[in-house]
Amino acid sequence: MTPPGASSARARSSQLPAKGPGAIRGAEAQRHPSVAPAGALRVVGPEELKARTRLRRARATLAAALLLVVIACFVAVISHAVLGSRQLELDNMKASAASEAALSRNLAARVGQLATPARLVQGAGRLGMVAPRSVTYIGSANPSSSRPKAVLAPTGSARAHRKPARSSFSKPTKTGSSSAGH
User: Fold this and answer.
1) Closest Cα to residue 151, out of 138, 140, 170, 167?
2) pLDDT one-digit tens code per residue, 84-105
3) Is the entire prediction scored with pTM above 0.70?
4) In angstroms, rounded to a whole number, what is the distance separating the alpha carbons of residues 161 and 157?
5) Nearest alpha-carbon partner for 135 in 151, 149, 122
6) How far is CA 99 from CA 37, 91, 121, in A?
């Protein structure tokens, strides 16, 4: 219940002139109900509240989407730069590996040339070393594995050396009584 004088007070306050520079006066406010005077408070209806909430959510979603796009572009640029620098390093390493492989092949060929028997004999001759006149193999203390003595004739050339008849890795053959005893 409202007191008897309350409704008349309300009516009187609506007839009073509004204060402030942007205040809308009585008849003008009735003609433009959507225009509120500056600084005036009003009750917001549920439809307008829902529209504002939808607008606020749409703006927040748009801002988040734009932020994600900017971050994705930034990440793409950084990853592209890192990829480019790694590719440059890889190309440099491949070129270095190719030059090192060529150097290794050249050095292996040089070692092969320097390690030939003719080159070694020539180098030994420059150092005053001479080829032996004869080579004598001494037999072992074990009589079952006797090696023949090889004697080389002196020819004055290192190429005239001959290998012994049997290598040190071959098994000696048994002769005579072992096959007759069976």
Assistant:
1) 138
2) 999 999 999 999 999 999 999 9
3) no
4) 8
5) 151
6) 84, 12, 33
